[in-house]
Amino acid sequence: RGADGAALRWCITGALCAAFLGLGMSIAVLGPTFPNLAANVRKNVSDIYYIFVGRSLGYLGGSVVGGVLFDCMNASVLLALSMFATTVGLYGIPWCKESLLLTVLMSVIGGSMGILDTGGNVLALNTWGSEVGPHMQALHFSFAAGAFVAPILAKMALGGSESKELPVAEKTNQSVLKSVLTASAASTTPALKDHHDEDFLWSYIVIGTYILLVSIFFFVLYSKGRAARDKSKASVQKGTLAKYHWALIALLFVFFFFYVGAEVTYGSYVFTYAKVFAEMKESEAAALNSVFWGAFAACRGLAIFGAAFLYPGTMILVSLLSSAASSSALAFFAHYRTLLWVGTAVYGASMATVFPSGISWIEQYTVVEGKSASLFVIGAALGEMCIPAAVGYLQGRFHHIPVIMYTAFVTSAVTVLLFPVMYRLANAPRENDLKEVSDSETRKALLSNSRLTEDEEDEEDGREWNEADFEVIEMNDKLKNSLMDTSPMTPGDSPAEVSLQPHLDDALGESPVVAGGGCPGRPNGNVDWEKSE
């Protein structure tokens, strides 16, 4: 059974990594194919921005619904159904000719992605418990790998006609908005390219088929390991909530809001910054963008091994300090080309491990259930939506100020300040712990008092026994002396003297013997009488 349980846990991890690979591809494929989607519904690329709003709202709704459903139904079934819904949406998008229907399909895909993101993290925690660190890092590395592969897959499907300026940044909604703005600035007429209508749909079909296969595998896991859900629920029930459980979850919500917002903002706007402020060529700007996401993906891969011997809190601390140092250099010294390249690489690497390490870290101090996980996933999703939008608005108002770099610096400072507060709350002693400590101290005090009482009683008993022994010895000596002074009984002895003899014999431990008709108390009565005669 132990071998079967270990094999099942590894199968669950493999399925989750495959699912997150598909999640990354599903999100990232939209950017390179966005002009083709606009042409497919006969709209300008600037007129269908609301499909991203629909997908984001669906993602938020899916995170909430997934958090509730995960606590009341089997995780494998829930993830399988969510991925099947993603497959349906991906299959329907290439043939969608109406913008409203396209928005609905995007909302369905966003909802299923929210369920997968919430449920996948919680399932990994319930499957591995305190050993989840490397597996959580592998999970989110798979997401980054999928976001890296999807644009390449789309470029192959489009026959190499797409621009190279979007390597991996399309992993987020706002990165796609950047490409929308670029495309709309280039052209305000529908980009109707009939040969692309058939080319780009293959990328959606390939990704949708892959996700369908992963969905089937989750159904197989459900049929093979139905007890895994019960075991995970039992392990969760055995855990204890932190004293400030909901305060921790709320702070983690804010922490992920700023962290994910900063990650998405830099990945979305570093290309524009490189062209406008650093005056780079388009190829150099694209290379700088690739350096950020390449360092991000590479560090997540290395974190799989690092999490095996480093605590999650240590990894978060190192990442936050590196992020603060690199963002400071980017905010105040980015006009130096070398610092811009090095700072971008370090900043991307420092952002890689924070999200998975944060989930592993919070699991050490409190129970992470579906509802709790949905809250910090929602925080990450809101940060992904709000902060890039705010930066885009401010950058449009203040053209000569590098808002993206100052945003990176401010968000890094906020996360550096938030983590010690969360650590302090997480380590606050629970009421049960204080009660157990007081009970243990009371038990120790009672045991020590009982030992002292027993020792005193033993000493007193010993003194009493010694006094009793001395009394017995003194009484025996007196009896023996009185017996030595007593003369042998004669016929003229008084009855009182004769009656006293047996009592003396009993006191000295000697039994009277009757022999040859002699008097009681005299063993050789006949001989004595002869001598007396």
Produce a short descriptive summary.
79% of the residues lie in helices and 0% in strands. It is built from 20 helices and no strands.
Report on this model:
The longest helix has 55 residues, at 431-485. This protein has 533 residues and is mainly alpha-helical. Helix 6 packs antiparallel against helix 15, helix 11 (245-276) packs parallel to helix 16 (370-397) and helix 13 runs antiparallel to helix 14 (337-350). Residues 160-196, 227-238 and 486-533 have low confidence and may be disordered. The chain is built from 20 helices and no strands. It is 79% helix and 0% strand. The protein has two domains: 1-160 and 199-227, Growth Hormone, Chain: A (Up-down Bundle); 243-429, MFS general substrate transporter like domains (Growth Hormone, Chain: A).
Keyphrases for this structure?
mainly alpha, 2 domains, 20 helices, disordered C terminus, Growth Hormone, Chain: A, 533 residues, globular
Q: Any idea what the CATH superfamily of the largest domain is called?
A: MFS general substrate transporter like domains
Largest sheet: none
> Span from first to last CA?
102 Å
- Report the strand count: 0
Rounded average pLDDT: 74
Q: What overall geometry do the principal axes of the alpha carbons give?
A: globular
| Structural domain tally | 2
Based on the coordinates given, report the CATH architecture of the largest domain. Answer: Up-down Bundle
Task: Write down the CATH topology of the largest domain.
Answer: Growth Hormone, Chain: A
Summarize the amount of helix as a percent range: over 70%
Write down the CATH class of the largest domain.
Answer: Mainly Alpha
Strand content: under 5%
Cα-atom Rg, whole angstroms? 43 Å
What is the count of DSSP helices, taking H or I runs of 4+ residues?
20
**Secondary structure category:** mainly alpha
User: Which residue ranges are poorly predicted, with pLDDT under 50 across at least 5 consecutive positions?
Assistant: 160-196, 227-238, 486-533
